[in-house]
């Protein structure tokens, strides 16, 4: 009996090792390079590394089986994109313990916004990139560093703006006051894109912002009465503000597409992708699109301030795959996998460019 258990354990470890080997084999196929800028939606551990913040279990339980600083039960959409691009998961720029920047760098940090008052605003992430590029030039004579061509052929992705909008709402600004903030958010995004372009980036991949009115946190903390919700139970003001921002971002992308002669600028409709998961949740096998898997308080939202996922006062649902939201703000691995598949399909992108063809070896 005892031997049997030991044998099963060995078999299990063996399979695990094979999986690990396979994933590292596929990863070296491609020479695509991705530099990502953003907030917790695409933070692969930057906040944890940068602030020494311990994101406790059960985060990571679905895939990594340990906490990695990702706000999810497993992989983020950007991890699934890396798999699709056949590159390693991106190391956070701020990770000092054995980062691997061969296939790019992730500058995204949870809590980031364009607003310069946050800890790692977009402008700082861009400066970090410029620092990285300068250091790379210095290190090039020693080999193993990105070439100028690598920087030129890399894809630069941006997923930012959600925290700017939600911060405006939580500061108790009225809807119209929130809308008045949007031009300055867009102008800071424009500055960032311009700096990347002026420093040799030609492939800019820009996500709009998701339906933040559908987040369990937003609904639990901000909904006052049922007249404020839309057809799918989401807070209409929050989603409308996101849509106004997104329309502005699309015009900005169109404007820059004609201004930056050498650039390809692709706008991807994250709002439509995420809203589809919520509106058509049963099609995707989700039972509770507006309820956090990991939280406190039970239906309808399972979200209570200061008793959020990762704290001892919160507990997770048994099956994350039945939920869109992991912790009330961030998506489950199951949702992230669908999000990535939709991004890779190019159906939500303007122009309809495949990320896999944009980010490829040009050597
Ligand atoms: C980083 O990743 C690349 C691609 O998978 C690999 O070839 C390289 O050996 C790794 N570098 C280190 C220091 O592990
Ligand atoms: C990068 O180096 C250039 C000079 O080569 C300098 O002007 C610039 O300020 C540097 N940027 C950073 C962020 O270090
Ligand atoms: C916003 O309003 C709520 C409810 O009136 C209040 O509890 C909260 O402290 C206010 N927040 C700010 C930042 O003023
Ligand atoms: C519900 O909230 C909206 C928006 O704040 C407000 O205009 C409306 O009067 C409220 N309705 C009720 C029944 O309280
Ligand atoms: C839900 O799915 C249907 C059928 O695929 C699609 O036409 C519709 O646009 C989806 N709804 C949303 C909000 O994406």
UniProtKB/TrEMBL annotation:
Pfam families: Lipase_GDSL. The keyword Signal applies. InterPro entries: GDSL, SGNH_hydro_sf, SGNH_plant_lipase-like. It comes from Dioscorea zingiberensis. It comes from the Eukaryota. Residues 1-30 form the signal peptide. The keyword Signal applies. Keywords: Glycoprotein, Hydrolase, Signal. This is GDSL esterase/lipase. Belongs to the 'GDSL' lipolytic enzyme family. One of its GO terms (molecular function) is hydrolase activity, acting on ester bonds. CDD domains: SGNH_plant_lipase_like.
């Amino acid at each position: 009996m005892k031997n049997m258990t030991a044998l099963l354990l060995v078999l299990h470890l063996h399979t695990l090792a094979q999986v690990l080997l396979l994933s590292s084999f596929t990863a070296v196929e491609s020479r695509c390079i991705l530099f990502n800028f953003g907030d917790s939606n695409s933070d692969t551990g930057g906040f944890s590394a940068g602030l020494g913040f311990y994101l406790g279990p059960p985060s990571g339980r679905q895939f990594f089986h340990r906490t990695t600083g990702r706000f999810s039960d497993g992989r983020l959409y950007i991890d699934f994109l890396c798999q699709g691009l056949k590159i390693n998961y991106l190391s956070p720029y701020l990770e000092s313990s054995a980062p691997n920047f061969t296939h790019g760098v992730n500058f995204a940090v949870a809590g980031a916004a364009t607003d310069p008052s946050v800890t790692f605003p977009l402008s700082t992430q861009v400066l970090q990139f410029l620092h990285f590029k300068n250091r790379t030039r210095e290190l090039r004579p020693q080999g193993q560093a990105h070439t100028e061509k690598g920087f030129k052929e890399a894809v630069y992705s941006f997923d930012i703006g959600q925290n700017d909008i939600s911060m405006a709402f939580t500061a108790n600004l009225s809807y119209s006051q929130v809308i008045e903030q949007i031009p300055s958010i867009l102008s800071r995004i424009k500055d960032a894109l311009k700096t990347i372009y002026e420093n040799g980036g030609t492939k800019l991949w820009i996500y709009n912002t998701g339906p933040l009115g559908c987040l369990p946190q937003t609904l639990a903390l901000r909904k006052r009465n049922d007249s404020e919700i839309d057809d799918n139970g989401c807070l209409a003001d929050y989603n409308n503000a996101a849509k106004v921002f997104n329309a502005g971002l699309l015009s900005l992308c169109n404007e820059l597409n004609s201004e930056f002669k050498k650039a390809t600028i692709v706008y991807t409709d994250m709002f439509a992708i995420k809203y589809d998961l919520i509106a058509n949740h049963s099609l995707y096998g989700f039972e509770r699109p507006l309820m956090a898997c990991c939280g406190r308080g039970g239906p309808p939202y399972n979200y209570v301030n200061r008793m959020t996922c990762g704290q001892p006062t919160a507990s997770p649902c048994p099956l994350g795959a039945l939920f869109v939201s992991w912790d009330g703000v961030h998506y489950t691995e199951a949702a992230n996998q669908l999000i990535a598949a939709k991004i890779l399909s190019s159906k939500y992108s303007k122009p309809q460019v495949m990320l896999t063809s944009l980010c490829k070896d040009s050597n």
